[in-house]
Design brief:
The protein is α+β, with helices and mostly antiparallel strands. It has 13 helices and 14 strands.
Length: 482
């Protein structure tokens, strides 16, 4: 039976407009000096993709729309993939430095994926300094989350220079074709009949946790209602209270444009771990504190630092919690304060540690699946209209957060693509009207933390400053740890 796009994943399709795009990406830097001729060609990359396609199912899936938008779309698997369309190459103009590369990547990241085809593109980029090449990989968020996106990349990589032979299983499943109109109608009717029960499930799940629902958490009294419901249900002690998070206005708040900027950089993981050990916190705490420091300096420079802390959206893995185990995305969004209002760097780090421990306590007591339930409760035909209307309203009144920060762990040993060594890997994610004009995503690889910062072109014209400030912040924490 053809797999339907989950109600949760469909929201990534529904929110897309000319400016709000919902794909995630990665920039991989390669050293091809160990290859014959010290080059990597588009044909080499396509040949690898043909051999490894069975390891990356999202690359074969395309959307099948339900007539009149009565239900969420379905995934159909193509028997053949048009690699001539999906795999492209281009060259940077001299001198091919990091800033030129980032400008090109920003243009690619600001372009929408074609929904009539499998929702991915790969660009092989030549002309980098020192003979390097780059691969920019873009996949729609409806098909992958941060973890599964990394798994798609991993399907193209090897732990040795010589690509491993990974043939598809002889008894592999036949590609799943999309359902016909009759099947889609029957399944749509079943969803309509289940909607009242889905709504009840959502209410039961969300009422004790109103203080962590974006938008709702900002309403005065939401925390009080949550505590009251938890007391009635006997869960008051198991779910610790969250502070009320008021989202301050910043230069990167409000409706975004269709244009992006991008900056990237690597920081030594060993130094971050040394800070972590000195203060008794986690690597993620140090990363969050560094982001808070960089953003504080950026805002102070413009005389725009709010008195309140910023509010950051933090994706959290929910693997194994999806209702039927079939959702492509197994990630939920939780909120935390980012102490940009704290002047002392030591206090800033400890504040981050307290906030992140509180989130972990909440998730350990009762994992937050309210958004999955809400998505299921909403009639599919209304989802797109409701999502876009909510985005327009929130972007002009009360945005849900100031920015998003995500930290994805990766392998700590060298990787290769077609025999070319991966020297760096930088993740890229989503900015929207309601999540703010900055997204900071981090991926650890081979002893380094790769920071990828996506921003709105007009809101944050000097995005490279944030990379410099991250370096300065790490140096400051390293000095305190000495």
């Amino acid at each position: 039976m053809a797999q339907q796009v989950s109600a949760f994943d469909a929201q990534f399709l529904n929110i897309e407009t000319a400016t709000n795009l919902a794909h995630i990406a990665a920039l991989t830097i390669l050293d091809p000096s160990g290859r014959p001729g010290s080059t990597l060609t588009r044909d080499d990359l396509i040949a690898l993709l043909r051999r490894r396609l069975h390891l990356a199912p999202p690359l074969r899936r395309r959307l099948v729309q339900v007539p009149f938008g009565l239900d969420h779309p379905y995934w159909a698997e193509d028997r053949e993939v048009d690699f001539d369309y999906h795999v492209r190459d281009l060259a940077l103009p001299p001198p091919g430095d990091d800033h030129k590369l980032a400008e090109q990547i920003a243009r690619l990241h600001g372009a929408r994926l074609d929904r009539g085809r499998p929702l991915w593109e790969i660009y092989l980029i030549h002309g980098l300094a020192e003979g390097r090449v780059a691969i920019y990989t873009k996949v729609h968020h409806a098909a992958v989350d941060g973890v599964t996106g990394a798994e798609v990349l991993a399907a193209l990589m090897d732990f040795e220079p010589e690509p491993a032979d990974q043939p598809p299983p002889e008894d592999g499943d036949e590609p799943q074709e999309g359902p016909d109109a009759v099947e889609m109608f029957v399944r749509c009717l079943a969803r309509v009949l289940d909607n009242p029960f889905a709504l009840l499930r959502f209410v039961a799940e969300a009422m004790p946790r109103l203080d962590e629902v974006p938008f709702v958490a900002q309403i005065p009294g939401a925390g009080l209602v949550s505590r009251l419901v938890r007391s009635i249900g006997g869960t008051a002690e198991s779910l610790p209270d969250l502070p009320r998070m008021v989202v301050p206005r910043t230069p990167f708040s409000g409706p975004i444009s269709r244009h992006r900027r991008f900056a990237f950089g690597q920081l030594p993981l060993d130094e971050v771990k040394r800070v972590k050990n000195a203060f008794g916190v986690t690597v993620n705490d140090v990363v969050m504190a560094m982001c808070a420091t960089a953003l504080r300096r950026w805002l102070v420079k413009r005389d725009e630092l709010p008195r309140q802390p910023l509010v950051a959206g933090i994706p959290v893995s929910t693997r194994g919690q999806a209702p039927n185990g079939s959702a492509a995305n197994e990630v939920m969004l939780t909120m935390t304060t980012l102490p940009t209002d704290v002047a002392d760097p030591r206090d800033r780090l400890l504040s981050v540690n307290r906030s992140m421990r509180l989130i972990k306590e909440r998730l350990a007591a009762a994992p937050a699946t309210w958004l999955l339930e809400f998505s299921q409760a909403m009639p599919a035909a209304l989802s797109a209209l409701a999502a876009r209307s909510a985005f327009r309203l929130a972007s002009r009144t009360a945005p849900a957060m100031n920015l998003m920060i995500s930290n994805v762990p990766g392998p700590q040993t060298p990787l290769y693509v077609c025999g070319a060594r991966v020297t760096a890997l930088y993740p890229m994610s989503v900015i929207t009207d309601v999540s703010g004009g900055i997204n900071i995503t981090v991926f650890s690889y081979d002893g380094r933390l790769g920071f990828g910062i996506v921003s709105d072109r007009d809101m944050v014209p000097d995005v490279w400053d944030l990379i410099d400030y991250l370096w300065d912040s790490l140096a400051e924490y390293a000095a305190l740890a000495s």
